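For the sake of transparency, this paper describes our internal protein records without simplification. Because each token names a local backbone shape, the row as a whole describes the fold. One such record is reproduced below, unchanged from the form in which we store it.
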Amino acid sequence: MPPSASTLLNRFTVRAKFRHMQVLVKLSELGSMRRAAQAVNMTQPAISQLVSELEKLLETELFFRHARGVEPTEATKELLPIAHRILGALEDGAETVASRLQEQGGVVRVSASPAALGGMIHGRLDAFAQRYPHIQVHFNQVNDTDPLSKIAEDRADIVCSRRPPVIPEGWSFETCLEDRLVVVCGQAHPLVGQDEVTPEDLGAAKWLLNRVGSVARDRFEELSARHSWPQSARCQIVMHIPQLTKEMLLTGQYLAILPRSVALPWLAAGDIHELRAGISAPLAPLGFLWRKERAGSATSAFAAHLRKA
């Protein structure tokens, strides 16, 4: 009979080691006992012993052995996200404890979407670093379509994003910046300088496409259908990375519909131009999620800094 959840929890508490999780992750990534041993600075027999211990603890096979190396079983694939969370929490804990022991100001884990990075974070980190030199801020970029992933993994103290439709229990959202969709292009684009850009002008231009399902792509499809823009207006390179979008816009050959927050650093630097195209559409506001009642002094200081965005 397979072990119960209570039995496994007791075994993990008493016998499992962080080293087991590290080996599970590295062996799954590298697919080789030899390479995994090198990666974690252990001998190959020691790696094999740890895998054997974990398999006995769980009463299941974790890797298929074959001539080319090893391959994770389905059980291992299900365990990997848990192992990543355990190791991530250990890394975060080490940073926090080290900061306290060194009499520093603590650690803040911040996750931010591309729109939040452009509208709320860009150009403002140096001021925070100057005012709070002893606070460590760790950044992770998250996808606009899944900004709450780090909350689910318990890997963030503050999440900078658009206001989500549903606020996770125990968290609150503070609005920092209103946002809207705009049409942008490089300074060398032929439409720069026109006081007003017509739908016909837009239909004759070449467009960079955003990912399917994004609000910017939906707006483009709506406008394209309404004004019968030709298929030739679409560049077939679909953009997911803001920096690559900027690179293409700088050629002066393309237009793009973007949240103004994403383009804000480029507009401020004078690299990109916002057209008066009359297609602006409001977006959910940008702000940050946090657990105010559980926040330490470092997290509270960074939250206060964000409020000034």
